[in-house]
Every structure is written in structure tokens, then in C-alpha cells.
Specification:
With about 110 residues, this protein is an all-alpha fold. Helix content is about 80%, strand content about 0%.
């Protein structure tokens, strides 16, 4: 149990972060599979417990599942980048010479 006010605030922040992740996953299931939000929340909880159950086999299986999920996200970004037919010359140019509008330059230079 948290003893100090700082520890209580840290616990509240951790719970808020967990809630945001849970809701994000539930909304993701809802948007991807068009299932009701309540069912998506239940599915999110079941998936979370299934992934956490891997801890009984050690940290490596849990790490492998998380790495696979991150890998799927990376693969999706790569596919989207390829399908978008980007102008790589422009990307290279502005990667080394950033362009800021006048107002942004003023804001960047201000000490406020």
C-alpha cells in the first residue's frame, strides 16, 4: 500500500496509464473486427490474461509474444510506406534540412 502522497500519485498515474492501454486495445478490437465495445473489452481482458499467463514458462515466451506484436506493427508500417509511393528524394532532403514556417521559427527561438 502506498504510504506517502507521492507514492499514491504514482499509483494513480500507473492506473490511468493501464486504463488508457486497456481502452485503446478495446477500441482497436472494435474498429478492426466491428464487434460491440463490451465484447471488445472482454476480449481485451482475456487476451491480457492469456499473455500474462506465459510468465509461468519464464520471461522468454512473454518477450517473444511482445516482440511478435511489435513486429506486426513494424510490418504494417513498412507495407503502408511502400503502398503510399512516397517521394524519397523529398524525404531525404527534408530529413537533413528541416523546413519551418516563419511563425514556427519564431516560436522555436523564443525562450518562453
Amino acid at each position: 500500500m502506498p504510504r506517502t502522497p507521492l507514492q499514491r500519485r504514482i499509483e494513480i498515474v500507473a492506473m490511468a496509464t493501464d486504463l488508457a492501454e486497456f481502452l485503446g486495445a478495446a477500441f482497436g478490437f472494435n474498429l478492426l473486427f466491428h464487434i460491440p465495445l463490451l465484447l471488445a473489452g472482454i476480449l481485451t481482458g482475456m487476451t491480457t490474461f492469456a499473455i500474462l499467463a506465459l510468465q509461468r514458462y519464464g520471461f522468454r515466451p512473454l518477450e517473444a509474444v511482445i516482440a511478435a506484436l511489435v513486429g506486426v506493427i513494424v510490418l504494417c508500417y513498412v507495407i503502408e510506406t511502400i503502398l503510399d509511393r512516397l517521394d524519397w528524394g523529398q524525404i531525404g532532403l527534408y530529413a537533413v534540412t528541416p523546413l519551418f514556417p516563419r511563425i514556427a521559427q519564431r516560436d522555436l527561438a523564443s525562450s518562453k
